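On clarity, I found the account of how folds are encoded harder to follow than it need be. Since the whole study asks how a given chain folds, the encoding of that fold should be made plain. The format is easy to grasp once an entry is in front of the reader. For illustration, here is how one protein appears when written out as sequence plus structure tokens.
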Amino acid sequence: IDYSILLVVACAFGLGAAVEKVGLAKDIASGLLAVADSPLSALIAVYLATVLLTEMMTNNAAAIIMLPICLNTAEV
């Protein structure tokens, strides 16, 4: 077991919960929708944000952090 990756994913769960609880996910989602003029462009913006996060951390951690942002984007 690679404990460094396990630690990154465990910390990402906490960061994802914090992003949702503080309201940052809603702010980021409204910012993405301000730039996007259609649902397709919103999907592309979310995809690009996830790709950028994946370059900095593992794909699992990026998915956990982007989940509340994606859910808020879909609600608005």
Observations:
- The chain has one domain: 3-75.
- The chain has a mean pLDDT of 87.
- DSSP finds four helices and no strands in the chain.
- The CA atoms of residues 18 and 30 lie 18 Å apart.
